[in-house]
Write a structure and sequence with these properties.
By secondary structure, this protein is α/β, with parallel strands linked by helices. It is 39% helix and 9% strand. It has twelve helices and five strands. Strands 1-2-3-5-4 form a five-stranded parallel beta sheet, sandwiched between helices. The radius of gyration is 18 Å and the shape is globular. The relative contact order is 0.17.
């Protein structure tokens, strides 16, 4: 068990469990699927940039850092059905860092959970896609906005599976700055003491609302802290699909509370976002920034039509 260590073990070539609409990879081997995911990741990042630009507000930095591991979950791990998003046997994705919802909405749109145009509905008065992810949106489990709550909610979902004799999996997505909240550690202790089957992913992009995480309140050693509460811990390059795949091979063979520390870059791969002390945590993209972001993602701004509010 590679607890607390950077995990880059060789991955196997396990069979894909399922296929969701939007990415036709069910017949390919793992290498082929990962190559498709890389292409899709770039498209999802374009969708994020367009969404935030159209709304003239939002949280692009933490959305861009979350793309790879969320793509992996939706295509390789989650048992969810866009035609029946409330199926009681569905897996639960508790997206606690809900301010970074553009990436979540981009994926829910791609996989047909929502039937609205995110560029027209995100952060609009009366729109279908609020500025913090909400269960009013099909495919969203958790009412976000107050950081630190998601892991406790995920614990409850795991306990509910036992009470109801159901066999669904529970995943919680946490921001690293969010782990400065005391409730996270109460939940971590509870999950360890009860041996709950919860998989938490911490997006370790090292930046938060104003400053780098370490300048606000240092959270390391994150791995040792969770291990002390009885968690198994993996650490990966959160932008590398092979590392994510290899980690999940072991995560899926392990019971009890499990933590994946995804080392990411806030605003990745857009240079001017990465360069900001807060990784472009939030804000309204200017026309020039929008065009620069598209160009850095490999898209011609002249071919993109987005109307701002």
């Amino acid at each position: 068990m590679p607890n607390g260590k950077l995990f880059t073990a060789e991955m196997g070539n396990s069979q894909r469990v399922k296929s969701l609409p939007g990415i036709s990879t069910s017949d390919g081997d793992l290498d082929e699927r990962i190559e498709q995911y890389r292409q899709t990741a770039t498209e999802v990042r374009r969708d994020i940039v367009e969404m935030v630009y159209a709304a003239q507000s939002g949280h692009p930095g933490g959305s861009l850092s979350a793309v790879e591991y969320l793509l992996w979950l939706y295509n390789e791990e989650l048992n969810v059905d866009p035609e029946n998003p409330d199926d009681p046997d569905r897996d639960r994705l508790v997206y606690s860092k809900g301010h970074a919802c553009p990436v979540l909405y981009a994926l829910l749109d791609r996989y047909d959970f929502v039937d609205v145009d995110p560029n027209e509905e995100f952060r609009r008065l009366g729109g279908a896609l609020p500025g913090h992810s909400s269960p009013k949106v099909p495919g969203v489990e958790f009412p976000s906005g107050s950081l630190g709550q998601g892991l406790s909610y995920a614990n409850g979902q795991s306990m509910g599976a036992d009470f109801d004799d159901r066999d669904y999996d529970v995943y919680a997505i946490l921001g690293d700055g969010e782990t400065q909240e005391g409730n996270i550690w109460e939940a971590a202790m509870s999950a360890g003491e009860k041996g709950l089957d919860v998989v938490a992913i911490v997006d370790r992009n090292k930046k938060q609302n104003d400053l780098p995480v370490a300048e606000t309140m240092e959270i390391d050693p994150l791995d040792e802290k969770f291990e002390a509460f009885g968690w198994d811990v993996w650490e990966v390059d959160g932008h590398d699909f092979e590392s994510i795949a290899a980690a999940f091979e072991e995560i899926n063979e392990t019971d009890g509370p499990r933590l994946l520390i995804a080392n990411t870059v806030k605003g990745h791969p857009i240079d001017f976002m990465e360069a900001q002390p807060n990784g472009y945590h939030a804000g309204a993209l200017t026309d020039d920034e929008f065009e620069t972001a598209l160009e850095e993602l490999g898209f011609d701004p002249a071919t993109v039509e987005v109307t701002t509010k």
